[in-house]
TrEMBL record:
Pfam families per record: 2OG-FeII_Oxy_2
All copies of domain Fe2OG dioxygenase, residue ranges: 105-206
Residue sites binding Fe cation per the record: 123, 125, 179
GO CC, alphabetical: cytoplasm
Any GO MF annotation of the entry: broad specificity oxidative DNA demethylase activity
Species of origin: Shinella zoogloeoides (Crabtreella saccharophila)
Protein name, entry field: Alpha-ketoglutarate-dependent dioxygenase AlkB
Signal peptide segment: none
Length: 207
DNA sequence: CAGTCCCA
DNA sequence: TATA
């Protein structure tokens, strides 16, 4: 009766534990270097300027940013330092080659840092000009309650408790699905020095 | 155009 | 607080 209870929608792929502990530690070290060069900033909602609860930065030739004045967009430089974003770590490029099924490399890797009380409302990733390429998402640190819906905001949703090292892929018919983070479970990982979660999302921006 | 804000 |  109900739609598939266990199966994921076409194009959605959940790869638990894709990175083992050593690989996760290497990824965190790489991200620490990215953050040293491109400091975390607080993204703000268009028009209202309301701060989001995550802090973010990017690596790659383009980075996703948002502010009160100009809204959501990709740009080649950090909004506060004006410098180009640092390169995407090799391990993430290798992941993209493995799971994306897309010939060209990702242009953007958005780095979102979630403090224990940070959330991300249901939204679509649709600021790219290339929807044939999937979005590839990596979880590091504390577990989170991740919600995924369908391509319409009112579609029913399912929740997953994601753990450090897990990978989620949104491609094909699921490229534009709504998704968000309802809560962080502090203290559920020892990967990071303090409680919190890092999410990395790889995107192809231009065809 | 707005939006991942908020909140029901 | 720095964390990343």
């Amino acid at each position: 009766m109900a739609t598939a209870e266990r199966g994921l929608a076409p194009g959605l792929r959940y790869v638990p534990d894709r990175f083992d502990r050593a690989a996760q530690e290497a990824l965190v070290a790489a991200i620490r270097q990215v953050v040293a060069d491109a400091p975390l900033f607080v993204p703000r909602m268009p028009k209202t300027g309301k701060p989001m609860s995550v802090r973010m930065t990017n690596c790659g030739s383009l980075g996703w940013v948002t502010d009160k004045e100009n809204g959501y967009r990709y740009q080649p430089t950090h909004p506060e330092t004006g410098r180009p974003w640092p390169a995407i770590p090799e391990a993430l490029l290798a992941l993209w080659d493995e799971v994306s099924g897309f010939a060209k490399p990702p242009e953007a890797c958005l780095v979102n840092f979630y403090d224990p009380d940070a959330k991300m409302g249901l939204h679509q990733d649709r600021d790219e000009n290339e929807f044939s390429a999937p979005v590839v998402s990596v979880s590091l640190g504390d577990q989170c309650l991740f919600r995924v819906g369908g391509v319409s905001r009112s579609d029913p949703t399912r929740s997953f408790r994601l753990s450090s090292g897990d990978v989620f892929v949104f491609g094909g018919e699921s490229r534009l699905i709504f998704h968000g983070v309802d809560r962080i479970y502090p203290g559920t990982s020892t990967l990071l020095k303090n409680a919190g979660r890092i999410n990395l999302t790889l995107r192809r921006v231009n065809p």
